[in-house]
């Protein structure tokens, strides 16, 4: 059922060949995302339209994520990434054709965003699960640091670059750039071999909805039988519930509390992204503490303190909020990077697609719930209250986690044993039925 990971000594060449191609694809996706949001804004001027677009982009990952993860664990991950890249490119190309014909409407954008999100629901777990089989365990944190760096750099570069390109290219021209970068991501996958986890031969050959559902249940049992993983998922859900709404309310904080304009909002967003880039570079060089949970929890404490300072900063202390925003972006990398590296190292290879998507789905569904509550609370008590609440809960959870053995020793546990326990539980359950 399990596979011993034996990465070749020259792992860097094949892995980074794929990684560079995927980085180009991320740039194209960032450009087209900015361009489509801007088109919706200038065409409709409706906050409801923008909120609907955001919801459409989130839902596939939340609803389809667990099933996508089960299929990723069953299928060849290299082919999954190629098909997902191609599917996203074709969807974008279709929208470009509609725009060139003068027929593009708002609902077309919704459909394409939904389809692109479906492709991403398969691509992301396939790439994460493949990384653990290509990169030696001692370098996983550094690779995650590089991933966070490219994400932060993209947040800095994509909006201004997208704005410049919109001034010189039609919208469908930017969409064609995304298609070309997707092709750049697919080419290395044609030639580079990605190791596959060993699965039971009968399970590998089987198909059908019932067996996919059985795989999803096995993923739930896997997480349920691993207390540290359950607690980690709960922390992620609470953080999404608090932090995503807080930073979605950033424009209100800047305009109503700090009496700023679009420039001040841009500074705040840039401070976060610059913090991510520097944090990612730091993690890629340093690698974090030997015990990855120590790095993540330390980062979580300081991320909470930074968020607290944003909420507590008086209206005359915009500089304090700006510095705190930088710190939260820096610490966000130290929180997430080691956790992803640890999951890649400790989760059984044949279970990684399901674990990543299940944890992501549970955490992701908390964002719209948090927004539904945060809006009225911010209207009643001020948006600063939500930042203070998010920061305080973040610090409290991190401090308590230091005294929870199941979390602190999560690095020492082995998901392969959990995989066997989950499989055994599934067998017993099936016999009981």
Report on the architecture of this protein:
With 433 residues, the protein is mainly α. It folds into 2 domains: 9-196, MFS general substrate transporter like domains (Growth Hormone, Chain: A, Up-down Bundle); 201-433, Growth Hormone, Chain: A. The protein is 83% helix and 0% strand. It is built from 17 helices and no strands. The protein has helices at 12-44, 47-74, 77-100, 106-134, 140-168, 171-191, 201-205, 209-224, 227-248, 250-257, 262-286, 292-312, 318-346, 352-381, 383-401, 405-408, 415-432. It is globular. Mean pLDDT is 82; it is low at 1-6, 201-206 and 417-433.
Q: What helical percentage do the residues reach?
A: over 70%
CATH H-level superfamily title of the largest domain: MFS general substrate transporter like domains
Architecture (CATH level 2) name of the largest domain: Up-down Bundle
N-to-C SSE series?
A: HHHHHHHHHHHHHHHHH
By CATH reckoning, the class of the largest domain would read: Mainly Alpha
Number of helices: 17
For the biggest sheet, the summary is:
none
Count of strand segments: 0
Backbone shape? globular
**β content, as a range?**
under 5%
As a whole number of angstroms, the C-alpha radius of gyration is: 22 Å
Mean pLDDT: 82
Distance between the termini: 23 Å
* Domains (count): 2
Going by helix content, strand content and strand pairing, the class is mainly alpha
């Amino acid at each position: 059922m399990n596979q011993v990971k034996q990465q070749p000594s020259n792992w860097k060449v094949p892995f980074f060949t794929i990684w560079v191609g995927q980085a180009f694809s991320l740039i194209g996706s960032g450009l087209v995302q900015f361009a489509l949001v801007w088109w919706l804004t200038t065409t409709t001027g409706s906050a409801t339209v923008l909120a609907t677009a955001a919801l459409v982009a989130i839902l596939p990952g939340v609803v389809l994520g667990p099933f996508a993860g089960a299929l990723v664990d069953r299928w060849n991950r290299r082919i999954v990434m190629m098909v997902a890249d191609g599917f996203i490119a074709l969807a974008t190309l279709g929208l470009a054709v509609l725009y060139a014909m003068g027929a593009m409407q708002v609902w077309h954008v919704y459909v394409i965003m939904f389809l692109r999100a479906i492709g991403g629901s398969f691509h992301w777990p396939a790439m994460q699960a493949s990384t653990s089989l290509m990169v030696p365990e001692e370098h996983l944190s550094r690779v995650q640091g590089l991933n966070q760096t490219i994400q932060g750099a993209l947040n800095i570069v994509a909006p201004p670059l997208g704005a410049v390109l919109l001034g010189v290219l039609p919208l469908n021209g930017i969409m064609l750039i995304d298609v070309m970068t997707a092709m750049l991501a697919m080419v290395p996958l044609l030639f580079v071999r990605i190791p596959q986890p060993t699965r039971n031969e009968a399970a590998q050959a089987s198909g059908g909805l019932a067996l996919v559902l059985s795989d999803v249940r096995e993923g739930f049992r896997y997480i349920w039988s691993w207390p540290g993983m359950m607690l980690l998922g709960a922390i992620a859900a609470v953080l999404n519930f608090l932090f995503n709404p807080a930073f979605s309310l950033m424009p209100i904080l800047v305009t109503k509390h700090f009496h700023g304009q679009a420039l001040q909002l841009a500074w705040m967003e840039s401070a976060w992204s610059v913090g991510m880039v520097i944090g990612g570079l730091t993690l890629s060089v340093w690698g974090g503490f030997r015990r990855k949970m120590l790095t993540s929890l330390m980062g979580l404490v300081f991320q909470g303190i930074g968020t607290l300072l944003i909420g507590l900063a008086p209206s005359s202390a915009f500089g304090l909020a700006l510095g705190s925003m930088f710190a939260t972006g820096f610490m966000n990398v130290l929180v997430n990077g080691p956790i992803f590296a640890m999951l890649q190292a400790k989760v059984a290879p044949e279970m990684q697609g399901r674990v990543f998507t299940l944890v992501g789905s549970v955490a992701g569904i908390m964002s719209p719930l948090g927004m539904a509550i945060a809006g009225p609370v911010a209207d009643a008590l001020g948006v600063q209250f939500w930042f203070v609440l998010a920061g305080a809960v973040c610090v409290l959870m991190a401090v308590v986690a230091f005294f929870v053995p199941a979390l602190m020793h999560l690095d020492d546990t082995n998901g392969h044993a959990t995989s066997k326990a989950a499989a055994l539980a599934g067998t017993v359950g099936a016999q009981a039925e």
